[in-house]
Amino acid sequence: MIRERWFGATGRKVPQIALEGTVDLDEAAVFSDVSDLAAIRAAHERGTPVVVRCETAEDVQAALALGEVSCALVRDPALLDLDLAELTYG
């Protein structure tokens, strides 16, 4: 089952984890990590979709722990099948 999230205020949904290049990023604020929480929150408050590029399972977990993030972009297809509940709660 593919879990989806709202893509900012665009009125559409996207997969919460997607392969790089499969989501149209024209309207999005794209971040390389979640370190700039103020910028992420500001983009979200403007209705701008927030996307974070992730390299590891931990990166994906950190990105999706933020309600402001619409999508975690990954290059490794194996990361599409992460069990986020297992990562979060053990």
Features:
90 residues; alpha/beta; four-stranded parallel β-sheet; two-stranded antiparallel sheet; 3 helices; 6 strands; 26% helix; globular
What's the arrangement of secondary structure elements?
Blueprint lengths: L3 E3 L6 E3 L1 E3 L9 E3 L5 H9 L4 E5 L2 H8 L6 E4 L9 H6 L1
Parallel strand pairs: 3-6, 4-5, 5-6
Antiparallel strand pairs: 1-2
Give an overview in words.
Helices cover 26% and strands 23% of the residues. The chain is an alpha/beta fold and 90 residues long. The chain has one domain (4-89). A four-stranded parallel beta sheet has the order 3-6-5-4. The protein has a two-stranded antiparallel ribbon with strand order 1-2. Strand 5 (50-54), helix 2 (57-64) and strand 6 form a beta-alpha-beta unit. The longest helix is centred in the middle third of the chain and has 9 residues, at 37-45. It is globular, with a radius of gyration of 12 Å. The two termini are 20 Å apart. The mean pLDDT is 93.
By DSSP, the count of extended strands is: 6
Rounded to the nearest angstrom, the distance between the terminal CA atoms is 20 Å
Question: Which segments are poorly predicted (pLDDT under 50) over 5 or more consecutive residues?
Answer: none
Which structural class matches the secondary elements? alpha/beta
What sort of overall outline do the alpha carbons produce when their principal axes are compared?
Answer: globular
By DSSP (H or I, 4+ residues per run), the number of helices equals 3
Mean pLDDT: 93
